Amino acid sequence: MLMPITADAPRTGAASPCEGQYCDGLVGLLGLARERGIGIVEGFARFADFLSEMVSLSPQAARARYPDPSLYEFRAGRPGELLDACALHRASHARGLREAPVLLLVHPFAPYLRRWDARADVVPYGFADERGAMKVLDALDLAKREGFCTALLEDPVSYALASARLAQEGRVDDVFFSKHRWGEALDPGAYARIPPVPLAIAGAYVQSCVRSALGELCATSASEIALIEELCVAWPYERASLRGEARMCATASGRAIGVVERGHVAGYLRETVSRTRA
Question: What is the pLDDT confidence band of residue 21, given thresholds at 50, 70 and 90?
Fold first, then answer.
């Protein structure tokens, strides 16, 4: 059973099996169109061949097929065209951040969107099927109910495959695009859109993309920053310590980074909003 992070009753039901680390259950959960055997957000069907390649190819094979900086920074060819389409989609659907605390999720669905890595020991958000993605949706909904704004740092590939639906549904208020399979923003200056408010960060993976995003945000924002343990995914073959990541970034930036422990998400959200409004 899904362990809820809200006071609502947990959702139940049969989970869909995953092929490799691609979770077919996302298609129904997010209402995706099915193209080339994968789910794609409506409006991105013309990129079906390219997106199918990105799901199937390892990072090394993808870069051989689309040499840097074409793919890594989405500068040219099909990667560049995809970024342009994602930027237009964001402009049409993102509402923008207001003066309220922000929950920023880094590549939240990345663990579910690949077929090239079939390791069974990657268990995102505590589940190897779409129940983990349900947990992400629950967290976004809870954050908005409590008065947070919500945002994504997202790879354009994952945006077209899944998370653009969150912008369409109003579950996220803004989107920042990242380099391919990495946590560095394509335009770090875009973080200026984040107001000087408390900022909570989570996502996948702690030891890579979340770490990179945290470092950039520490360098560009004076906001209070916290990591949400319950919504972070770690590579299983590395021992991840959120406190260790927080200490590393605190040392580099000369500032403190908080860690919200498991089971305390709702309390943190309420206390942060209350403190910000006081």
Answer: low
CA-based R_g, the chain, Å: 18
- Residue 14 pLDDT > 50, yes or no? no
Give residue 242's pLDDT: 67
Contact 148, 269 (CB under 8 A): yes
Per-residue three-class SS string for the chain: CCCCCCCCCCCCCCCCCEECEEECHHHHHHCCEEECCEEECCCCHHHHHHHHHHHHCCHHHHHHHCCCCCCCCCCCHHHHHHHHHHHHHHHHHCCCCCCCCEEEEECCCHHHEECCCCCCCCCHHHCCCCHHHHHHHHHHHHHHHCCCEEEEEECHHHHHHHHHHHHHCCCCCEEEEECCCCCCECCHHHHHHCCCCCEEEEEECHHHHHHHHHHHHHHHCCCCEEEEEEEEECCCCCCCCHHHHHHHHHHHHCCCEEEECCCCHHHHHHHHHHHHHC
Choose between 113 and 10: higher pLDDT: 113
Q: Which domains does the chain have, with CATH numbers?
A: 21-277 (3.40.50.850)
pTM of the model as a whole:
0.89
Which of 37-51, 59-73, 141-155 is least confident? 59-73
Query: Using alpha carbons only, what angle is made at residue 202 by residues 198 and 208, rounded to the nearest 5 degrees?
Result: 120
Cα 261 from chain centre:
19
